[in-house]
Design a protein that fits this description.
This protein has about 170 residues and is an alpha/beta fold. The chain has helices at about 75-90, 115-135, 145-150, 165, and strands spanning about 10, 30, 40-45, 50-55, 65, 110.
Length: about 170
């Protein structure tokens, strides 16, 4: 089996706002391959009884929060994940290929390979939860503002660098 340069790892984290299960995700075989800083992680979160997805790039911790995700949105998984990442990258004024060429057909599902990324995603999920509570719920949330904030949150593995800077953008 050849290992793609970029893998989307689907993980189930535990923590506030998460259910820790992947019942809504497509049933696929888990691949077993070494992780890379070019991998993307996805976490299914539940806020206000609604499914949301948090995507995070392993090397830069560049994050994308997507509220109100339905089961049909996730099928095919690559058809959801890749355009979502590309739209987020464009929203920051970055080149869509900043993370390399992402192939919707090359999305694999695997177990968590990097506990540091998982920990950062749990922190980012808390930021999402607090933002949702502060605005009065998902319906009132400014998702673009939240995503901009997530990408400008200092996370320990990056030292004093913001995720958007690590990805090549501006604060």
């Amino acid at each position: 089996m050849t290992v793609p340069d970029h893998r989307i790892w689907i993980i189930a984290a535990t923590g506030r706002g998460t259910e820790g299960n992947l019942c809504s995700l497509p049933k696929r075989l888990l691949v077993d391959a070494p992780h890379s800083d070019q991998d993307w992680y996805a976490n299914l979160l539940w806020f206000s009884g609604r499914k949301c997805v948090l995507l995070t790039h392993a090397g830069t911790l560049f994050a994308v929060f997507v509220p109100d995700v339905g089961v049909t949105d996730l099928r095919p998984l690559g058809g959801f994940v890749v355009p979502t990442i590309e739209a987020a990258v464009r929203s920051e004024g970055l080149s869509v290929d900043i993370f390399g060429s992402l192939d919707p057909d090359g999305v694999d599902v695997a177990k968590t390979a990097n506990r540091s990324v998982l920990g950062c995603m749990n922190d980012l999920a808390l930021h999402c939860e607090y933002a949702i509570e502060d605005t009065g719920g998902l319906d009132l949330l400014d998702v673009d503002q939240l995503n901009r904030g997530l990408r400008r949150t200092i996370l320990r593995p990056l030292g004093g660098t913001y995720p958007v800077e690590a990805a090549g953008g501006q604060r």
